[in-house]
Amino acid sequence: MIEVATWLNHVEYDWKSPIWQARLAELTKSYTLTRYDGRGCGLSDPNPEHLTFDDLVADLEAVADASGLKRFILLGCCQGAPVAIAYAARHPERVSHLILYGAYARGKLAHDPAPHDVDEAETMLKLVELGWGRDNPVFRQVFSSLLIPDSRPEHYNWFMDMQRMTVSPQNVVRLMRAHNVVDVGAVLPDICSPTLVMHAKNDRRVPFADGHLVAHSIPNAEFVPLDSNNHLLLAHQPAWRQFLDEIARFVADRGTEAADTEFLELTAREREVLDLIARGLDNPQIATSLTLSEKTVRNHINSIFSKLGTPNRAQAIVRAREAGLGSRNLTTD
Fold first, then answer.
1. Chain centre distance of CA 331
2. What's the burial of 203, exposed, middle or buried (CB within 10 Å: 0-12/13-18/19+)?
3. How far is CA 162 from CA 12, 97, 234, 300, in A?
4. N or C: which end of the chain has fewer CB within 10 A?
5. CA-CA distance, 77 to 71, in Å (whole number)?
6. Order of strands across the sheet with 95-101?
7. What is the pLDDT of residues 308-317, one digit of tens each?
8. With contact defined as beta carbons under 8 Å apart, do 234 and 148 qualify?
9. Do 88 and 74 form a contact (C-beta atoms < 8 A)?
10. Which residues are within 8 A (CB) of 79 and not within 5 positions of it... i.e. 6 or more apart?
């Protein structure tokens, strides 16, 4: 699984965050999760020369290529959603499952914005310029009420720390300007990957209607409303668990479809063996499950490795799980 970067991420600091730590721990139980700091954020160059939407998509393309994964689950949340949409439309052969949360296809200022939308966008930009990373109670109240209205004191403290750790106010303004005019609506009908769209019912940052429109515009996409007021889901909320459970269900339900497309070079028996490998069974257990000799199992496994170009069992498991195999014995895959 590859998760698209947002500007409130830091690949090292996130593991200490009361917002992200629990989520990362859950996702990495059964997925090989590839994350990266977005341009101008976290450990990336703090002063990038270019910071456009096309640059963000190009960065995702570079990360996907560097990961070595032929196909993978693509997770795009919040500002990462339009980037994920653009990538999935350009590279359908790479995306086995597309999962979106808090998604939108068009920025607030994308098409003939109303005067009040322009005023609101400019006000937010000015607020960021003056208050980002500073212990300003007015700024903290505005942004926390938009992103995490149902939160606890430690979450407010995290929000202030995360601002200082992740991105400068100048880069936030550049990113917000880019996302305000983004428009990937035209490519939504081109997406052919199995797609799950989730959205908090009372999201104050990205309207619920935006997520519904994304799901309605992608062929055969599933749309799941989450009962929350938060843009960023927190571990104490029922919606947080539902978010994880829906991902697990979706990957498991659509796994056979993805695997059949991913592993066309394998025979039906080899796909069965690969599924059992991904479920964590060793050779004797596979032999018992399929009523085969261990020698036959070894032969099948050698053939699988050769056809997939995977040198060892661990890499074969990664490929299989990214395509949705091995789901029946896993809690979140």
1. 18
2. buried
3. 12, 30, 15, 49
4. N
5. 19
6. 2-3, 72-77, 95-101, 195-200, 222-226
7. 888 889 888 8
8. yes
9. yes
10. 6, 7, 175, 179
